[in-house]
Specification:
GO molecular function (chain B): hydrolase activity
CATH topology of chain B: Sortase, Chain: A
Number of domains of chain B: 1
Oligomer: heterodimer
Radius of gyration of chain A: 18 Å
CATH superfamily of chain B: Sortase
Organism (chain B): Phytoactinopolyspora halophila
InterPro entries (chain B): Sortase, Sortase_Class_E, Sortase_dom-sf, Sortase_E
Helix content of chain B: 25-40%
Radius of gyration of chain B: 25 Å
Largest sheet of chain B: 8 strands, mixed, barrel
Number of strands of chain B: 9
Order of helices and strands of chain A: HH
Distance between the termini of chain B: 84 Å
Protein name (chain B): Class E sortase
CATH architecture of chain B: Beta Barrel
Order of helices and strands of chain B: HHEEHEEEEEEE
Shape of chain B: elongated
Pfam families (chain B): Sortase (PF04203)
Largest interface: A-B, 19 and 37 residues
Number of strands of chain A: 0
Distance between the termini of chain A: 46 Å
Chain lengths: 51, 237
């Protein structure tokens, strides 16, 4: 999977490495800003109120 | 040179389908593990960054409220904090038991979006200093964990809240008293935030009370924990 992505990136290896790191950082940012807050809210794993 | 270029273009050696599937599965499992670890980093640290920024904004907002209240003092004294919207700055909470410098800006509202920014006031409850039950909910894991040492609250502890209308001190008469499981209640035990706790919610209050709620256990939400007290001093602004 990861090797497959690596083989399909364009350019010489330093360019590929940069692109690869950018993709990974982008995915982590998406997790932190959208996915994790959504998980926290949807599954109610951190509720502090009585109702 | 020529040979090297050719080698770079050479295809990976053929693998059996079973080996390919096993390889992909392994990579997926590693990825899942990494995502779980990242989620832990998010709850422990990531959520606190947003909360810290929000607290700065709330403090500015609160200072501005006080300033503008001071400016139109020519008007009557009826500065009701009732015109606040969810997410607005409500006041400053101080609990000496949690440290001399422990100070958190309280927001109006107890929705997830409000509590992300700091401890929140139950919006349908009494205001600080009023007859009834002034109630605040706060996180004790993640989001800056304002109520992290919650079980350390003892009966007799003072909880102070400063709002646009004044400074109010409550003395706790029900608290976990150092027991990590003390004052544990069910999620549905909303009686703790009723105007008169333990009485039907329509009962007319004769006391000005304060109630704090948080989660139990600390790193979960299967139950809740609370502390409660009564107004002992007020200083109008």
């Amino acid at each position: 999977m990861y090797a497959w992505v690596w083989r399909h990136l364009p350019g010489p290896w330093p360019v590929r490495l940069l692109i690869y790191l950018a993709i990974i950082l982008g995915i982590i940012a998406a997790l932190f800003f959208w996915v994790f807050p959504w998980v926290e809210e949807t599954f109610g794993i951190n509720r502090v109120t009585v109702d | 040179m020529h040979r090297k270029a050719r080698r770079g273009r050479r295809r990976a050696p053929k693998r059996s389908p079973v080996a390919v599937i096993a390889g992909v599965m392994g990579e997926l499992l590693l990825t899942a593990g990494a995502i779980v670890l990242l989620f832990v980093v998010y709850t422990l640290w990531g959520t606190g960054l947003q909360t810290a920024a929000a607290q700065d904004d709330l403090r500015e907002e609160f200072d501005l409220q006080i300033q503008s209240d001071d400016e139109d003092e020519s008007e009557d004294e009826s500065e009701e904090p009732g015109d606040l919207e969810l997410g607005d700055a409500y006041g400053i909470l101080r609990i000496p038991r949690f440290g001399e410098d422990w100070e958190w800006l309280v927001v109006e509202g107890v929705e997830d979006d409000d509590l992300r920014d700091g401890p929140g006031r139950y919006p349908d409850n009494a205001h600080a200093g009023e007859l009834g039950n002034f109630a605040i909910a706060g996180h004790r894991s993640g989001h800056g964990e304002p109520f992290a040492p919650f079980p350390e609250l003892h009966e007799g502890d003072i909880v102070e809240i400063e709002t646009r209308t004044g400074i109010y001190q409550y003395e706790l008469d029900s608290a976990p008293n150092g027991d990590p499981d003390g004052n544990r209640i069910e999620i549905s035990d909303s009686w703790v935030v009723d105007p008169v706790p333990g009485e039907p919610s329509s009962t007319e209050p004769e006391e000005a009370r304060l109630t704090l709620t948080t989660c139990w256990p600390r790193w979960g939400s299967s139950h809740r924990m609370y502390a409660s007290g009564v107004l002992v001093s007020e200083e109008e602004r």
